[in-house]
């Protein structure tokens, strides 16, 4: 309650709270500056977003713990050490007490100290457990770079050590040109026997990482990868059909899911709706149609905005019925939001609709 009150007070002035927090942190602990990117603009709102997410789930222990464990494991690649947590906590509380002055008192401070201690302990423990079984990051060499449209590239890399993951998951990726700036990308294939990983990258305006990957990366370049994450994976304990919506480069994890179903030798119906702005933007349609030819249980339906005058989720309504299907959505945040609404409307229960967190996608920015 006290935590929620504080978050409600600082929500509208989040920018100030975060700037002051980082100023405190770097003045009091200059040795921590090198863990953060040179340009802090994209970093700024990440911390507060993470805190808001934690505060939002404070009553749902299971979701909160899973989220924090993932966050703790993900922090290993930044070089975060257990002793850094108290330093961060102190500056966080310093900043909150200044900007949430209307609600701040000794009781609120005690509640924050308790909450932050619990949060950081879950993260520290998860990182320590992960240290026993996985590297903090992987180096990966670009082995092919295929420019499919003027701004979309399919990039394949070879990790320096085995990289275990599940089809439908994503990773974080750092290029040599923008040190310590990490972006999320979904794996575009199910795990392969040669260990190679592929990503579909679209260069977006002002997207430093995406532009570097599309326009600068060449075979031989070395990137870094964080651990795999995400829960948009196939449930192999059922044989219900899969209804998949992939918008733009959002087709990447959908392709991985199709390969996963194929490898499990299952003959469950898989219906893929592949949305793009124009015919040219359907850069992976050949691959998807080839998959359709080899798998009788797979149907691929391209949806081009300009031709359909309807967006992806609206088209899905015209097919069906979908009540025997699990739904998977991947694409821009707007598509995921309206897609979830459309699918609920059609009668698919929320627990059968899977997608990556829209907050993560927005935070991914470019
Ligand atoms: N795991 C995931 O969810 C993944 C998400 N992405 C995200 O997908 C996006 C891909 O960008 P682009 O290729 O430029 O896609 P885009 O902006 O060209 O959109 C692709 C298609 O999605 C549909 N769409 C877009 N906005 C919509 C809205 N508000 N409501 C309904 N339908 C909508 C339309 O059919 C559109 O043609 C990026 O934001 C990227 O971060 C990419 C890969 C994986």
Automatic annotation (TrEMBL):
Main enzyme class: oxidoreductase
Reaction equations catalysed: 2 nitric oxide + NADPH + 2 O2 = 2 nitrate + NADP(+) + H(+); 2 nitric oxide + NADH + 2 O2 = 2 nitrate + NAD(+) + H(+)
Its EC number(s): 1.14.12.17
Gene3D superfamilies named in the record: Globins (1.10.490.10), Nucleotide-binding domain of ferredoxin-NADP reductase (FNR) module (3.40.50.80), Translation factors (2.40.30.10)
Chain ranges of the Globin domain: 1-128
Keywords: 2Fe-2S, Heme, Iron, Iron-sulfur, Metal-binding, NAD, NADP, Oxygen transport, Transport
Cofactor: heme b; FAD
Protein name according to UniProt: nitric oxide dioxygenase
Organism of provenance: Streptomyces albiflavescens
């Amino acid at each position: 309650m006290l935590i929620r009150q504080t978050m409600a007070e600082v929500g509208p002035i989040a920018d100030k709270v975060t700037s002051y927090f980082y100023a405190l942190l770097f003045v009091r602990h200059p040795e921590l500056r090198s863990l953060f990117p040179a340009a802090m603009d994209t970093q700024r709102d990440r911390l507060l977003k993470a805190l808001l997410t934690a505060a939002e789930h404070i009553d749902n222990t299971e979701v909160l713990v899973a989220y924090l464990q993932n966050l703790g494991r993900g922090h290993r690649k930044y070089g975060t050490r257990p002793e850094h947590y108290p330093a961060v906590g102190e500056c966080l509380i310093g900043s909150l007490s200044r900007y949430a002055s209307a609600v701040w008192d000794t009781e609120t401070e005690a509640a924050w100290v308790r909450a932050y201690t619990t949060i950081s302990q879950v993260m520290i423990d998860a990182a320590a457990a992960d240290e026993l079984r996985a590297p903090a990051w992987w180096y990966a060499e670009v082995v092919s770079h295929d420019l499919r449209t003027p701004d979309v590239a399919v990039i394949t890399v070879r990790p320096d050590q085995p990289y275990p993951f599940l089809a439908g998951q994503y990773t974080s990726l750092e290029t040599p040109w923008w040190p310590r700036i990490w972006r999320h990308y979904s794996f575009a294939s199910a795990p392969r026997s040669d260990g190679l990983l592929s990503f579909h990258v679209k260069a977006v305006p002002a997207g430093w990482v995406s532009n570097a990957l599309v326009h600068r990366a060449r075979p031989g370049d070395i990137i870094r990868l964080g651990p795999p994450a995400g829960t948009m994976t196939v449930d192999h304990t059922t044989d219900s059909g899969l209804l998949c919506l992939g918008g733009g480069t959002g087709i990447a994890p959908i392709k991985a899911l199709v390969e996963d179903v194929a490898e499990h030798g299952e003959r469950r119906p898989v219906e893929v709706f592949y949305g793009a702005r124009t015919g040219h933007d359907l850069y992976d349609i050949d691959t998807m149609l080839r998959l359709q030819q080899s798998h009788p249980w797979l149907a691929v339906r391209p949806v081009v905005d300009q031709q359909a005058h309807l967006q992806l989720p609206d088209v899905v309504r015209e097919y069906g019925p979908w009540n025997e299907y699990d739904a998977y959505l991947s694409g821009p945040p707007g598509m995921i939001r309206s897609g979830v609404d459309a699918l609920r409307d059609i009668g698919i229960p929320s627990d059968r609709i899977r997608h990556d967190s829209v907050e993560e996608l927005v935070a991914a920015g470019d």
